[in-house]
Amino acid sequence: MSDGIYRYDTITMRLVTSQDVSAVQDILDHATYFNNTVVKYDPVGMAERCLKMEPPTVEGSRVFKRFFIIEDSSLGTGPLATLDLFVGFPNYQVASVAMFVIHEKYQRKGLGKRLLTEAIPGFLCEYHPAVQWLSVSLTENNVPGLRCLVKCKYERTNRWEKLDIKGRPVIALNYRKKFK
Length: 180
Description:
alpha+beta, 28% helix
């Protein structure tokens, strides 16, 4: 991945650069359910904030931030989704999805399932072989996301956290899947 690109079948995951911010923002702007129901705010500037966000610090583990823009030639041309992934968080055996948003035009076409069960685990096996688990936290009101994780056979953990999103309390549930 020296060129910042990972390919799996028809899926291309490319590291986001400053030139991609407008394309990522377009994906975020065209995720109505995510904006209106899950986070309940306008995503203005979210792409830029994600690009600049530093990975969390974990003692005894090196954390890598992998912010991807995703294309799938079987569904169309151009960027279809974005993924913010922290590898080595909360420990060296885990990769955690911080944000995963699919453009509404391409939702419910199997892209989420293929990414969560094939492409992301394939990327992790190839570039981060110590990682064995993929962890996804999502808000309790993200019904499509919850359905996708259950369909992909992710297990709910007893880990959860109370978040404050713009003054609104929200519960984030954690799901995970072992892929090795």
